[in-house]
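Preliminary data (for renewal application), iron/sulfur cluster complex.
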Amino acid sequence: MQQRLSFACTQCGRCCQNHRVPLTVHEAMAWLRRGGDVHLLCDAVVWPAEPPADDAFAAYKRQRSFAAASAVMAVRVGVILAASFPGRCPNLMDDNRCGIYAERPLVCRIYPASINPFEPLGAESKACPPEAWDARGPAFVRAGQLVDHATQPLIDQARHLAVQEMPAKQRLCDALGIRVAAMANEGFVVHKPPRAALLAALEESSAAMACATAMAPAQDPPGDWRLLSPRATTLEILAEIHADALDASQAGRLGVEYLDLQPQPASAAG
Ligand code: SF4
Ligand code: SF4
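Predicted structure:
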């Protein structure tokens, strides 16, 4: 993590191109109503037992997932609602300004900071050009801590919603029959439900979010999640623990897309 950073947005528009934009439930509904596309990115982690209470990363993961099962194996499933667009964001205007600036999603307001507290705060992984990080710009990070006081409350809000919305996302998966996930840190399974069906399911989940009893977690987590991986070693491990696993090359047959976070280099010909 960088200890000292300054930052001033150059309005280059690079962060608004070739990205998936994570959305809250209400942002996803607004995005769909504007005619955009929203996909569900699902991943899962095997969860045979509760980790120690002082495992901060496991606690973070647990809060942002719901209990489920893959055959006999307990897992936790994470779901990201993401605006998806090839190339430029449909809201990006010709002069690189945001066409929905007042209503833009939280992650757009937070960038180049991150919601994930385990993600290093640095310039390397961001789309911003070098001049945006000019040391003469406004203070962004000091002593390894974010000091942009306008952004920190937005990060807190996004983190709070990510936890609060998990029951709604579980309900969404139930309503849409979504039961396929990638292994966490390897990739995501991308589900692309029809826009009208997704909007209707979001509206129903959103309405139920206000009702604590309607959103109570299921007593018996659904046991029919299928886990995809492109890696032979991962598939072997999943077979040994009797999870329901399948090679990621079969994603198309299941009507989903596999997004590999660590694509393996093609083997040399000959
Ligand atoms: S909504 Fe606006 S800020 Fe967010 S990616 Fe699109 S153009 Fe950029
Ligand atoms: S990539 Fe960085 S500098 Fe460019 S518009 Fe986005 S936040 Fe601003």
